[in-house]
Amino acid sequence: MTDLPELDPVIHAQARLRVTVALAGLRSADQITFPRLQQLLEMTAGNLSTHLRKLEDAEYVEITKAYEHRTPVTLVRLTSKGRAAFESYTKALQRLLDAGT
């Protein structure tokens, strides 16, 4: 039997996986507003904030507070570390799936 790969526990939680997938779909320098991400994922603000904090603590996402026309806006983007972690996660998941066949 082959050694089964470990899945990154930061990404593996369902909500954080959904966040990471959504952010990985953007170009590396692109950001998305918090409300738009919330809408895409159909998550409450509190739930999304909690999962973003975990991803931010792992340095997988960067959160920027800015102003647009004097209105505060929160921008979210996947960091290069987060993108690399997601790529490793998907490769590990594929190896895990391949091991089951």
Protein described:
The protein is built from 5 helices and 3 strands, in the order H-H-E-H-H-E-E-H. A hairpin with a 2-residue loop joins strand 2 and strand 3. The longest helix has 20 residues, at 80-99. Strands 1-3-2 form a 3-stranded antiparallel beta sheet. The mean pLDDT is 95. It has a single domain (9-95), classed as Winged helix-like DNA-binding domain superfamily/Winged helix DNA-binding domain (Arc Repressor Mutant, subunit A, Orthogonal Bundle), CATH 1.10.10.10. With 101 residues, the chain is an alpha+beta fold.
CATH superfamily: Winged helix-like DNA-binding domain superfamily/Winged helix DNA-binding domain
Helix content: 55-70%
Give the helix tally: 5
Oligomer: single chain
Average pLDDT works out at 95
Query: In total, how many beta strands?
Result: 3
Strands of the biggest beta sheet: in what spatial order?
Answer: 1-3-2
Determine Rg (CA atoms, Å).
15 Å
CATH level 1 class label:
Mainly Alpha
Could you describe the largest sheet, including whether it forms a barrel?
A: 3 strands, antiparallel
Per the CATH scheme, the topology name is Arc Repressor Mutant, subunit A
Sequence of secondary-structure elements: HHEHHEEH
Q: What is the annotated CATH architecture?
A: Orthogonal Bundle
Label the structural class.
alpha+beta
Spans of at least 5 consecutive residues whose pLDDT stays below 50 are none
